[in-house]
């Protein structure tokens, strides 16, 4: 009897644990992406500072700044797109999970109603 209750509890908690796993993996991936972004931004900033310190005239300084800002914009844009894709994918998976849970609950309630 106790084993049956334990199995029912595990089965009923399965969707919650699957959702928690999805959230954890998504958060971990987001943290890794943010870490990579900040590392890239920091190293780009240091490289830019080195480049600027070596410039002898205003024209080459302006060109170096333009190149740096274009690279910065591209890096941030790519990171935003990757983050959006990751979060959208996780949201879609969570939606599928909730849909499955809803369908399962509806079927169980219908079966319980027929049994009465």
At a glance:
This protein has 116 residues and is an all-alpha fold. The chain has helices at 2-53, 58-115.
What does this structure look like?
This protein is mostly helical and 116 residues long. Helix content is 95%, strand content 0%. It is built from 2 helices and no strands. The longest helix is centred in the last third of the chain and has 58 residues, at 58-115. It has one domain (2-115). α1 packs antiparallel against α2. The chain has helices at 2-53, 58-115.
List strands and helices in order, with pairings.
Elements (H helix, E strand, L loop, with lengths): L1 H52 L4 H58 L1
Instruction: Please tell me the total number of domains.
Output: 1
Q: How would you sum up the major sheet?
A: none
Spatial extent as radius of gyration: 26 Å
Low-confidence stretches: none
Instruction: Please tally the β strands and state the result.
Output: 0
The average pLDDT value, as a whole number, equals 90
Helicity level = over 70%
Distance between the termini: 22 Å
Determine the structural class based on helices, strands and strand pairing. mainly alpha
**Beta-strand percent range:** under 5%
Q: What assembly state would you assign to the polypeptide chains in this entry? A: single chain
Work out the helix count: 2
Instruction: Encode the helix/strand succession as letters.
Output: HH
Shape: rod-shaped
